[in-house]
Amino acid sequence: MTRFLTFLVFFAGFGLSAFGGKDPAYNARILLIPLDDRPPCLQFTQRMGLIGDAQVVTPPLELLGRFTTPGQSDKIITWLQQQDLKSFDAAIIALDMLAYGGLVGSRVHDVPFEVAIKRLDIVATMRKRAPGLKIYGQSVVMRLAPTADRKNGAYREKLAHWAEISVATDPAAKAETAKLEQEIPAEGLADYKQARSRNLRVNQQAIDLVRRGIIDYLLLTQDDAKPKGVHIADRETLITETRRLKLTDKIAVQPGADEVSMLLLARALNKHATYSPKVKAVYSSEKLGNTVMPFEDRPLRQTVSYHIKATGSQEVNDERDADVLYYVFASRFEPGRADSFADEIDAKIKQSKRVIVADIDPKGDVQGGDTPFTMALEKRHLLPELSGYASWNTAGNTIGTALPQGVIFTLAQAKRMKQSSVANRIWTAQNWFLIHRVLDDYYFHNLIRAKANQFAKQVGRSSTLMSDETTSQVEAYCLGLLRQSFDELVTNYEQKRPGSLQQAVRCTKPIALQFDLPWNRTFEAMIDFTISCQSVPEN
Prior knowledge:
By secondary structure, the protein is α/β, with parallel strands linked by helices. The chain has 18 helices and 15 strands. Helix content is 47%, strand content 14%.
């Protein structure tokens, strides 16, 4: 109930600002079919749209499912049929939601291929009804591990290991594979193989939608993976097919899952504005830039490059050509590098450069913001100066959140802020997102989440499903801790430095902090609050 009321509060406020008649209409309307209902797929994308002066419209929340309960694909299709598609400037469609009811639904074989592919017919129908609508699609390449649930808890890790080593040809790997196949329940292994085979066929059908001119641009995205495993053959099959059809300018095969709707949002808004910002990536460590990060299957530098291209931006090598600098910090275990990298960012901001910051977890054990680096940014009062920031979960998640925020804000500064009322709502959205990212990525995931797991008597960075009663207790516990962090963060955030990017922006003190665990686990949180900003003419 808390989760639902949180969205009601958000949409009520959104509706007043969007349709109250006082402000001009939004510059763009984007239709979004999200990957699922988790905050990164839904809340982040909607809020990020406001930074680009865009209204992001989605199906009703109750149709999107929840964790192992899949979204109601057929009802979402009915909802799509009822929309005035010509009123939208672009559509971003997670094909996994239409086909299987979302990302978790894609990892099991509950939906036959024939049903999944029939559901995708709605995309062709959309093209017929609105020939001018730009349609951006996402289709996920299945990850190695199944979703953790009560049913597979005893063998999930073994199945993930099987998926990693079963393609190896050396005698030791073959022997271990055979041993695992004896230990994993036959039904569980068969379901995994069937889901993987079906998903590859749906990935290939997504390519065909591009070939037929139905989808304008497609991201085939590799969910959590490793450099070796059964997914490699799937990936290479898709790359080969894309090249054979000469569709490499319209299809990218790259890492990602949860963050992809934000990448496609940036691309949609850039295309709508006929804009393509130039981005230069700067790494805290050249060595780590060439290293494969946890849960990824290619070097960090490649992931960054893929994500830049996905947003419709251009990657450049010379800082003098760049509209925005993308600082990628992955040096948590290099003494002194947090401060020196923050100093480099500080120097660029003093030169009036736009800067995006991604704080990467290079070991995969914290999956939230780094304490020394976050404190270095706070100490220098750099957070309000950033065009984008993120530090959550995998490298791809972080990169794919900070980057599109910064790209969209760069677009907004270049194209959308001439009218004061529009500038006010863009500044409101930008400040909400920056504060939210630090509150969620650092204060919750790095400081509070471990305490919450201990409070709930869970293990590690638990993604285990809790009972409703336990979830309510943990939510209350987290909200109490988060309020203290919220006050600390806001106090620092309000202390603007001389020459601040926001020196002529005045914001109300953020209030009405809300906290919810939408999937009854501490792995992700729904955090919300209220803030309002105005640009004030300089004296």
